[in-house]
């Protein structure tokens, strides 16, 4: 016998058996619902005090029987059967123990999201089915067409079946039209113990990825290691998704494989966590070969521990006695391929990193100084680089608009040509897979002569964002590098605050404050000079060239033994002279 689904807690075995007997009902192809089926559903609703749902095929066969409460519709099981090319070929009947036949928002949301043939609500009073109200998908895929309520003894069976046929043609036509459009996924955001600002940032991430945010749900409690927000809240969320016709949920934290699996089974829609969302954005925005390699590496490192399978106990990775068996499972083959690809990507990234190191060494040997632009995503680093160097770097008011490091030369008065490097932006809860994959790029900051910590001065979370940047810099061992705090987007401020030490307020958009920034950069890059006196041999013309290039108050005294040098020099030059 087919199994009863839903909340069976507290039901006696006899009642469960009677509920499972609903599978025995069979309707004709021209019958929307039989009076006998309605009477039995009403009787069992009165006995259990719970809502009963029955799902019927186009041919009249009962496909599923579920039981819940008058506030809990167990629809996720059937949501997975959504008909993407039209209606699903399934109609659903469910009882309302409170006696109202009217379809709720959840009923209509489930009708639309699952594209049922029809959704019928049956009013039950004193164990009797009194009336029925039926909904069909209407003139658009977001509207419902309501018929009834009808008394149960006067249900227009043929007219309702004709309406199912009309809805089928209508939906098929609407879907064909929709397929020519770029329809964003409708998503609900879910956060646990989070601030309003954090959820707003998650919404911006979702929009950057191309999703349409249709709702936000938050929960304050200890994290449930099986369901993240708790099993009860997950069931409530399933109803909310049905009512909002959502295709996906995005969680504001990284989910464990168990949490993700349980939530998908409960909700019946795609579940994406914050890490997966950021990785998706990075994959869409990476342009250079190195950027794509780094994103693919991060995605594989994230995916590997989340492959579902039979576990290591059935692995057949060795050979010989004790390892014989049915051979590798598909899951094991997938894992092996992923590990191999991770190894290959790491080797390719090492080669690209070595090439970048060669370019960096050449710049250093020629005495070119380096300035790295770091900061929270969307703080305006690329816009600032464009303002400084007319770099033509892509810049847009969205999170992670640019990912690939860009280096441009800028002539700084008193310093000469200086290389400015735009690096990937930081964000709260930056996935550790990304930090690992992008480490070679991020470590540009640790080797720079100066850091410009760019911050969105107009953001109400500016201080918190600066703290995130400081934490990432600390993890890269770059906190000791000289820094200038650049408060960008002052064109959005009513007034500019008083400037603090090593801080400058600018607008990369209007150019305001750029000259002050360049002057401060020149001041920071001007080497600290130390008095030096020593002898240089005639065979070391390269060292004498460094003295003449970088020294101040230079005095050269030529003698048979060599050249006596007295000058004020940068400490780096003095080290070479002594070496």
TrEMBL record:
PROSITE patterns: G_HFLX. It comes from the Bacteria. GO terms for molecular function: GTP binding; GTPase activity; metal ion binding; ribosome binding. SUPFAM superfamilies: P-loop containing nucleoside triphosphate hydrolases. It is found in: Cytoplasm. Pfam families: GTP-bdg_M, GTP-bdg_N, MMR_HSR1. Residues 335-365 form a coiled coil. One of its GO terms (cellular component) is cytoplasm. InterPro entries: G_HFLX_dom, GTP-bd, GTP-bd_M, GTPase_HflX, GTPase_HflX_N, GTPase_HflX_N_sf, P-loop_NTPase. Keywords: Coiled coil, Cytoplasm, GTP-binding, Magnesium, Metal-binding, Nucleotide-binding. Residues 369-529 form the Hflx-type G domain. Its main location: cytoplasm. The keyword DNA-binding does not apply. NCBIfam families: GTP_HflX. Monomer. Associates with the 50S ribosomal subunit. GTPase that associates with the 50S ribosomal subunit and may have a role during protein synthesis or ribosome biogenesis. PANTHER family: GTP-BINDING PROTEIN 6-RELATED, GTP-BINDING PROTEIN HFLX. Belongs to the TRAFAC class OBG-HflX-like GTPase superfamily. HflX GTPase family. This is GTPase HflX. It comes from Christensenella massiliensis.
